[in-house]
Amino acid sequence: PETQFIKSRWDTYSEHPLLYLLAIGSPTHAIKPASWYAWKRDWNTYRNYRYLGKAPLFTHQYSHAWVDFRDRRESKPPHVDYFENSITATHAHREFCISLSKKFPGYSENVWGITASDSAKGYRAWGGPPATPDIDGSVVPCAAAGSLMFTPEISLAALRTMHDKFGSKIYGRYGFTDAFNPNNGWINPDVIGIDVGITILSAENLRTGNVWRWFMRNPEIPRALQLVGLNRTSRNAQPQMRRRARARLASL
After folding, report:
1. Spatial separation of the C-alpha atoms in residues 162 and 145, rounded to whole Å
2. What's the pTM value of the predicted model, to 2 decimals?
3. CA nearest to 24, candidates 78, 83, 67, 85
4. Quick one: which of 82, 108, 81 has its CA closest to 96?
5. Where does residue 248 rank: exposed (0-12), middle (13-18), buried (19+ CB within 10 A)?
6. Torsion of CA 197, 203, 207, 209, to 10 degrees
């Protein structure tokens, strides 16, 4: 209030879809449904992957922790399926981290994940692809954990490997440390609530779907989804894969 509105704007795809849906679905101060299509769609291509969004991986996770975007696709161009988009973004990010192993050998097929976090030099909004210049080989566990609801097989494998390989150095009473660097031994002494939060929410959505189920009972969200044309498509989930992943999650 003292300095008026911030200059930053959520005008390009990032973590903001939840904000738009709440505003569009508001029963008292709704914004126009056309607002959903007003922000910029910034497409990213990495190897064989093409998906919406070039920001760190958390931007593909936060709105999905609450809103059940599964099997929904925009009725208007560019007809994005946001759940599938986050799956693709996670796979691309894992491949990106593996590609960095030549420079930072601590990264591997099951030790990966770079998203906004602490670092040895303070907060960093790092990620990729494309690579941000400040990447130093650090691993941020909530990058893989926040995608449990999208990619349970590769996310669980990463969390299990990190837990088994580094043990109590990076895992304690409140779960994984915020970040660590397997290349030089740096370990963040802090556990940060927002990163533990996306870990827990994503795990619960994989395990039971309860967060999605409870949140979607709020009438504002189904109303907004209908108004913007995020329509249901046919179910294409792989229930056997998800059952196996839930069983592995329970054993962690």
Report:
1. 11
2. 0.92
3. 67
4. 108
5. middle
6. 50
Residues 77, 86 contacting (CB under 8 angstroms) = no
Q: Which residues contact 117 (CB under 8 A, 6 or more apart)?
A: 123, 124, 126, 138, 140, 142, 178, 179, 188, 192, 195
User: Residue 170: what residue type?
Assistant: I
For residues 201 and 65, the answer to whether their CB atoms sit within 8 Å is: yes
Taking only Cα atoms into account, the Rg of the chain, rounded to an integer number of angstroms, comes to 18
How many residues in total does the chain contain?
Answer: 252
pLDDT value of position 212: 98
3-state DSSP call for residue 49? strand
Q: How many whole angstroms separate alpha carbon 78 and alpha carbon 80?
A: 6
Q: Are 27 and 173 in contact (CB under 8 A)?
A: no
**In the chain, where the domains are located:** 42-216
What pLDDT digit, counting tens, does each position of 4-56 carry? 888 888 889 999 999 999 999 999 999 999 999 999 999 999 999 999 999 99
147: its two tokens: 């995608």
Q: Is the pLDDT of residue 241 over 60?
A: no
d(CA 248, CA 245): 5
Residue 223 CA to residue 23 CA, distance in Å, equals: 11
**CATH topology for 42-216?**
Glycosyltransferase (1.50.10)
Backbone torsion region of residue 33, taken as left when φ is above 0, otherwise alpha when ψ lies between -120 and 50, otherwise beta: alpha
Tell me what percent of the residues of the chain surpass a pLDDT of 90: 87
d(CA 77, CA 166): 45
